Structures are given as C-alpha cells and as structure tokens.
Amino acid sequence: ALLASSSLVSAEVLKHSFHSPNPARKILVHFKDLDIKGSIDYGVTAISLGSTDFGGLYSEKPLAVITPAGADDIGQVIKHALHSPTLTVAARGNGHSVNGQAMARLGLVINMKSMADNKKIDVNGNYMYVDVGGGALWGDVLKHCVLNYGLAPKSWTDYLDLTVGGTLSNAGVSGQAFRFGPQTSSVTELEVVTGNGEKMVCSNSQNSELFFSVLGGLGQFGIITRARVLLQPAPDMVRWIRVVYSEFNDFTRDAELLITREETFNYVEGFVFVNSNDSVTGWPSVPLNSNQSFDPTLLPKTAGPVLYYLELTLHYNNHDDPSTVNMMVEKLLGKLKYLEHFKFETNSTYMDFLLRVDNVEEAARGSGIWATPHPWLNMFISKKDIDAFNRIVLENILKNGVNGPILTYPLLSSKWDNRSSVVLPQGEIFYLVALLRFTHENPKESEIKQMVAQNQEVVQTCIKNGFDFKLYFPHYESTVEWKSHFGDQWERFVDRKRQFDPKAILAPGQKIFTRNH
Ligand code: FAD
C-alpha cells in the first residue's frame, strides 16, 4: 500500500527499495508523500556517489540521492524536508569540493549534474547571454556556445568539469577574472529554489537580496536551477605564453602591471615551481611543448629554492596576420622583466586552451591519482602580505612543492560585487594562492595526514604573522571560525540565512549552521 501511494516515485526507486538490505523500507516511509517527476535512489552506487568528493578526505552517507527533473522537483524535495524535524538537503554539482561541502549526512543529496533541465542551453545572440541549468557543466556550456554561435562566457575556471551552480556558489576564478571579475560577476539573473522551497527568479533589480546572497553563498540560501551568463564573441585561437622569473618582486610587479593596464593579455595567471628537475613540480613542468626545453644552466646564480612563471594568453582569429599577432605579443611583453631564454610560446585553439586541464585529468586518471585524496588549500591573500607570504611560506614551508601545481596571481577587488556573499581581504589587489596537492597512487594515511598538516601550518603561519587573508572554498568546523571568516559580514550572512533558509536545511556539509525545527 505504501508503495502504491507513492505513484510518482520512479520505477528505479522501487527497484532499489526492494533489493536494498538497508533500512530502505523505513526510508520509503519518509518519502511516501514526495511527489516528484525525477527519481529517488537508495542504491549502493547512488549513496556512494553522494558520500564522496574530489577531496576524498570526508565521507557522509545520505539517506538517498535524488535526480530531479527540474526546479519544481527540487522545490518538492525541500518542502518535504521542511516537514521533517531533521532532514537536510545538499545540492551536489559535480562533487569537486575537497572537504565534504556537497554532502548531507542522513539527508538528501540532489544530483544536479543529472537534472534533465541542464540539457537546455539557450543562447540569446542579440542580448549576448546564455540561460543554462544549474547542474550543467561549464565545458558543455563552452562547446555549445562556441560551436553553434561563436560566442563564449567571459570568465572561467581553469578546469571545466565543474557545474554552473557549484562555481557560482563559490566565485569561479581563473586568468580572466582580473578583467571581468569572477564568474559571479558575469551573471545577470538566476532561478533559485530557496530553503523555504520557493522557486524564485532574481537579479540585480528583482529579488536582489536573494540574488546577491546566492552568489558566492556556499549553497546556504538556495539551489541555483538556472543562471543567465553574459557572453562575448569567442576568438578562434590563443597565443599561449609562459615567462619565468627567479625574483618574486619582478614576478609580482609584472603581474600587477599586466592586470592594471588598459592594453593587456586576455588571460593572466602565475605559478610557483620548484627549482629542481622534478617532473611534476620542477623545471620540466614549465615548457608548453615537447619540443621546448628548460635549461637550468641559464638560470641566474641568485635563484632560490622556488621559481615563478606568468602564464598569459592573447586571443586572435584565423584571419589575423601572424606577424600582427607576433607584434602585439612583443609589445605586451615589452616592459616585462622575465628571465632571458625563459619564454615558452605555443598556439592553441581557444577551446583547447580552455579545456587544457582535460589532458591533466586523463593522465591522472590513467595513473590512478585522480581518484586518490586531494588535500587542496585555496586562499586569497592581501597584496600587502604577499612578499612576506612568499618568504615564509613559498620559499620555506613549501620549498619542495606540493606534488601538484601551486598557483599565485593577483586579482582586483573592484571587479567583485561586494553585495555578493563572498568575503575578500582588504585593498584593491589581492592574490589567489592555490596549493593543488596530489597524493601518490595508493597513498599511505601518513602521506595524506602530512599534507593536511602542512595546510594547517600554512594557515596558522598566516594567522601568526597577522596576514590579511581569506580561505577560498572555506572549510571550518566551528561557528567561531566561520564568524571570523566572515568578519563584519557575518551578521549579513546570518540575516540572509534567516530569510532564505531559516531551518538550515541547505548545504549542511559546509558546517556553518545546524538544522533546526
Ligand atoms: P560541488 O562540489 O558539488 O558543490 C560545491 C558546493 O556548492 C556545495 O556546498 C554544494 O552543496 C553547493 N552547490 C552545488 N551546486 C549547487 C547549486 N546548483 N546551487 C546551490 N548550491 C550548489 N575553482 C575555481 O574558482 N577556479 C578554478 O580554476 C578551479 N579549478 C578546479 C580544478 C579542479 C580539478 C577541481 C577539482 C576544482 C576546481 N575548482 C576551481 C573548484 C570548484 O570551483 C569547486 O569545487 C566548486 O565547488 C565547483 O564544483 P562542483 O560543481 O563539483 O560543486
């Protein structure tokens, strides 16, 4: 009778409920009134998906994983949770968080990537925007917009197997952010299902408090089911350049020059690498092609334990004269103080450049290290402390690298909307620092613990030295720490929570608020 009453629950649910030895029958009692067009899955595979993420450090089992047909299903799920005393709901984008942020212990995980609505990627060429489902992958948005319309979003992440809703809940940054701001800055409208179970459209001028709450809101105020993202004409090609520095001051001076002057590259990022022949973290990681080589004998004698490079691109089109492109590149590189003999260049299609991390993923999957834990640390550090950070952290604590890329490049806070929920260090220029650690295949627990401990050491060093910094993808366990993270924006964050998710149903894996009745 119970099963018959939940007529809209899919056949798949019924399949799992009969075959799961777990408390599936009890769970079905929970969901007998849940009336959705999508499916609810209690099976081992679904639960395993809902309880894992890219970080591989945390695992919290949900009761079930829901594949919604669309926003209305998500509204039903949240309303259902509102009627229970304890249920929580976590949107899971592509699970690329590193600290369990998309998990919901004994709650419901919504598999956003599988939402049917994501297939609709609607480009409006006249007004230069695309409407896209919250669970769509940025890589699919790129391919659809470029191949069918010759258009593309303005601001990206380095890796595109991330969902639109997932990055907009954080910020979404890459080498275009100095010009266009993070991805949250090129969104003009959202459709959101709030923690009250209401589906709402919001923008700068309509339900604006919800709009800005959700952008960078760590999933706390609503689930993004659609985003309107601004587009620009996509170039055919990019000139892709890396120039090396031994002196941090020269590196930061040039990076800041490039991000603040009018005429500049289309993409500016910076990396730190180890002054050694390590294939992952050292000299061999710098050249762009197999026919280029890094000759360490040409490095100055003053070079320290770590070196730096700027990564730059310039857009161009197939019909552009190569000599004009060369001239433009030379002009833009003109005043930079990188080391002679250490300029690496190649040409790439625009799409291949934006999808460049796919090759890294393929290789890492092949060697098994894509699936092992990734204790990553991302932070924003004020320009005023970046020299000291380099001296104390990069050249010292991290002088042997992190067995993966270390990124550091400047961003401009004026390109970020301070009405969004993201918090930044003070001042116009701040640096992103990303420690993208990979473990070895079959890592020992001690290896993972050492990496986590080194992250903690870095954070503690920043605190001890009074550096002005914020964690990006923040992860804290206590309210005191969250309060300190948000600083004078904490009250605003709490007010927003009260308004849009008063029972603290959403994104419990962030561990900011506790579910209440
Ligand atoms: P998830 O990890 O699934 O979710 C993240 C959080 O957002 C969770 O709290 C979840 O509940 C919430 N959430 C998910 N979907 C929604 C939604 N639709 N509405 C509301 N809340 C939602 N970030 C950058 O900024 N720049 C980079 O260059 C970059 N490169 C990366 C490269 C790799 C290889 C990886 C693994 C990550 C990278 N990231 C980068 C981090 C990435 O932005 C975050 O992992 C982000 O969380 C997006 O991942 P996701 O879509 O899988 O979201």
Protein described:
The chain is of the alpha+beta class. The chain has three domains: 2-113 and 503-510, Uridine Diphospho-n-acetylenolpyruvylglucosamine Reductase, domain 2, CATH 3.30.43.10; 116-233, Uridine Diphospho-n-acetylenolpyruvylglucosamine Reductase, domain 3 (2-Layer Sandwich); 237-472, Vanillyl-alcohol Oxidase, Chain A, domain 3, CATH 3.40.462.10. It is built from 17 helices and 18 strands. The strands form three sheets. It has an eight-stranded antiparallel β-sheet with strand order 14-11-13-12-16-17-15-18. β8 and β9 form a beta hairpin. α14 (383-397) runs antiparallel to α15. The longest helix is centred in the C-terminal third of the chain and has 20 residues, at 445-464. It is globular. The two termini are 30 Å apart. Residues 1-21 have low confidence and may be disordered. The site of flavin-adenine dinucleotide has 34 residues, from β3, α7 and β10.
What structural keywords apply?
Uridine Diphospho-n-acetylenolpyruvylglucosamine Reductase, domain 2, alpha+beta, 517 residues, binds flavin-adenine dinucleotide, eight-stranded antiparallel beta sheet, Uridine Diphospho-n-acetylenolpyruvylglucosamine Reductase, domain 3, Vanillyl-alcohol Oxidase, Chain A, domain 3
